[in-house]
Amino acid sequence: MEITGRPDLGSDLKAPKSDPSGRANWSYSLLTYVQPGDRVFHWHTSLLGEPAIVGWSEAAGPLNTISMSWQARGTRGRARGVPTTGPAWHLALQNFTRLDRPITRSVVNGQRLKILEIQHELEALVGKPVYGPFQDYGHRELRANQAYLVEFPAALVDLLFVPPANPARTTSPSERSKTARIGHTQGFLADAAVRTALELHAVRLANDHYSSAGAAEIEVLGKPFDLRVVLNGEERHVEVKASMGVDIEAVQVTQGEVDHARKWQPTDLFVVDGVRVTKAGNGEIVTSGGRIRLWSSWVPEDQALRPTQLRYTLRR
């Protein structure tokens, strides 16, 4: 999570390689661990009048070095009155998305005890303090850590971003849409349980779709493609993608999926976005809804593909 007051949210991450004294700072160095495809939350100190997580971006990369001028924080930094210039880490971001329901400091403090419990469990697990997003200020309220970049544990994503199911309350279609609206790309999900639930939900919808279309055979495979369908006497292979985002403009595909779609035709790309995800009282992930879009006889085009990760072969 980036903790900032900058106006250009979602453009990039940048941090000095050292503080004014020349020493490394863990909050700055943490930037070197961010990988392409990682989700970065943005905690803004003043945008809403109350500090809050106001949105998220996807790390694009690659990590590089730039020259940067900055005003050091703290009493000593302000007393110097002169910006510091030096080498800095820089990582490009993309697909900045504002949250429909920002996670304000009030919301965070509403979960204060649970957040502290999660942090204590993590520290007990690793045997040392974790670079978490919040500090227990005065043992009475949570505030964002006094840092630039902090780790955001998956357990906190589950706590703060996946709403509990509430069967007793009826929501309008517009409210359900807002609950689901997370972004305009498929993104990378930190919670494996949510990711699996989304994939299974989309596969069920795809199965129903082809069954209604009169498919003679439907076989769920998963690898190297999701479905094998015999429709109108023709064998089709189907790649299924799912997202909680609404009107997504991109999905994550592997090189293997691209190669297979180019070698076998017809291959369909079946995309379900706007899936609503809630968490039942017993902890079960519940999925519902979603909009179906189908690209029949899909052949991946080079101009529509963008690498999000690169593999570097180490020389011996």
TrEMBL record:
Domain of life (superkingdom): Bacteria
Region entry Disordered, spans: 1-22
Protein name (Swiss-Prot/TrEMBL): Protein NO VEIN C-terminal domain-containing protein
Organism, scientific name: Propionicimonas paludicola
